[in-house]
Amino acid sequence: MQYPAGPGFVSVRRRVFLPLPAPKTDPLAGDATQRWLWAFLLLGIAVRAIRYALRFPLWEDECFLSANLLDRGYVELMGGLDYGQVCPLVFLWVQRTMVGLLGFHEYSLRLFPFLCGLGSLLVFRHLAGRLLQGATLVIAVAIFSVSYPMIRYSAEAKQYGSDLLFGLLMVTLAVQWWRCPENRRWLWALAAVVPVAVGISFPAVFVGGGLSLFLAMILWQTRDRRGWVPWMVLNLLLLGSFAGLFALSAGNQSARTLEFMQDCWRAGFPPLSRPLELVRWLIVTHTSDLVAYPFGGHNGGSTLTFLVCAAGVVVLARRRQWPLLVLCLAPLGLNFAAAAMHRYPYGQMVKFQFYLAPAFCILAGIGAARVLSRPREGRPARTAPVAIALAFLVLFGAGSAVRDVLSPAKSTSVRRARDFARWFWFTTQFDGEVACLKTDLDRRFSPRTFQWGLSAMYLCNQRIYSPRHARREPLRWERVAADRPLRCVEYRATSQPYDREGRDAWLASMTARYDLVAVERYPFVLGDRTDEPARELDYLEVYKFVPKPVQTAQRAGGQGPSG
User: Of 376, 406, 436, which closes a domain?
Assistant: First the structure.
């Protein structure tokens, strides 16, 4: 059964989907729509591939997670993670597999997120094509293709790209069933995907919960009794897989870091006990990072996107498209409930609600098409504003690629840290042996240094840019000589407790066989300031040893004093 209505939507049978547009009221139609769609798809693929190929240095957030992959196996990843990380177990296993197959470096760590980014672009094009058409479809796909968060998280070694892809897959399967409710295979397929999605993405629980409400709404409308069976199975799998994941790994992670994370997420929790502050918080949150598509930022930096999304909500409400509103907004409501219980942040950073990017792009496409074209009954819609908006989005996407080429790093400080690692670990191997106290000698005089802080960046860059560490080769004690000294590198975090007596005892054991001829210090700075006092900086301390003359004849037959 078809129903009449307004521009920008696709029709379907049985009263549950969206009406076809009237051809004269849409500023884009036919071939023009397809040309624009292909242009934005190709642009989206290109900008993601360029950022991935540029091999940005790992920044601190990537290093905090990736450092846990340096020496842990699949079983060890089920326990608590260092550096305050909480991450879905299946994502960790995928990353561990990539590292095992391809080695530990920027490309292997980012390969799965990159594939998720490309997959998300193609899946969103398919999903949007099932919901929208004409200018509405093109604008939604354009925003998704060139948005900075989509480009960034397609080339970052974190789980947010898989949050997006698997949330999209779940929604797409639900919409496929929505188009043809009598075909319940889509519901069963969705139920089968749910455990994998929850295992690889924590926010998949919000998506699954929102879809449960959406599907129940459609089942009630269509009076499909047999459809309730896969719906119940889906809900059982959603709850069971989340409970199983929590028992298997997430509980171990959160028990160790929950207090720390709650402190970090404080700005993402609604102040329910202070009504005036809550109003201000709601306004700021919904006009900031939450809806930063195609761009935006803190303190109201995404106000324009919020307004066009709000216009999209109004359009859907006026046309009584309640199922689509539930599909877009129900996960957000569940997320808000979790934030009210201080379990997951709401807003604060775009990555926390990255799984909702498709909903925001769809709403923004609907709202922007309505505002720009201003269709009037009996008159053709205005095409110039839509064309100008699309041209701007093309330039924005191309500008993102140009910016990345000109400045291929998240910040100057992380580029500086990588440049130092490239120089130090590569150069020093030619005139001596270089040992890391932690990774080679298993000496840690400040254990917390390697559980929190910037030491993660030091460890990751060491594994990537030290040829010997990249090959996982042991230190060759027998090669240490007067003309080939031994350098022992210690990472020092001045903010953490330090066992000076233990360090002195180690030095005493070393100087029993070696002469300490020099101690060098290299500041390890995060941030672009260079005027910080040395006592406030992390640093590398390098102890340079040469064999004592009486030990020269003994070197070839034994290990070093710490072997």
Answer: 406
Question: For residue 468, which amino acid is it?
Answer: R
421/510 same-domain check = yes
Same domain flag for 194 and 271 = yes
User: How deeply is 290 buried, as exposed, middle or buried, from its count of CB atoms within 10 A (0-12, 13-18, 19+)?
Assistant: buried
Residues 331 and 466 in one domain: no
Residue 484 β-bridge partners = 481
At which residue do the structure tokens 């260092």 appear? 82
- State the residue range of the domain holding 162: 27-406
Within a domain: 1: no
Give yes or no: residues 96 and 227 share one domain: yes
> pLDDT tens per residue, the chain (563 residues)?
333 344 455 544 444 454 434 445 666 767 788 999 999 999 999 999 999 999 999 999 999 999 999 999 999 998 888 888 888 999 999 999 999 999 999 999 999 999 999 999 999 999 999 999 888 999 999 999 999 999 999 999 999 999 999 999 999 999 999 988 888 999 999 999 999 999 999 999 999 999 999 999 999 888 888 889 999 999 999 999 988 888 777 666 666 666 677 777 888 899 999 999 999 999 999 999 999 999 988 889 999 999 999 999 999 999 888 999 999 999 999 999 999 998 889 988 999 999 999 999 999 999 998 888 775 555 556 678 888 999 999 999 999 999 999 999 998 889 999 999 999 999 998 889 999 999 999 998 998 888 888 899 999 999 999 999 999 999 999 899 998 999 999 999 888 899 999 999 999 999 999 999 999 999 877 666 555 544 457 889 999 999 988 655 455 445 555 44
The pTM is what?
Answer: 0.89
Q: Based on the fold, state whether residues 387 and 431 are members of the same structural domain.
A: no
Measured CA distances, 172 to 130, 166, 366 (Å)? 9, 10, 18
Contact between 166 and 197 (Cβ < 8 Å): yes
Q: With respect to residue 466, please indicate whether it lies within any of the assigned structural domains.
A: yes
Structure tokens belonging to residue 559: 């290990």
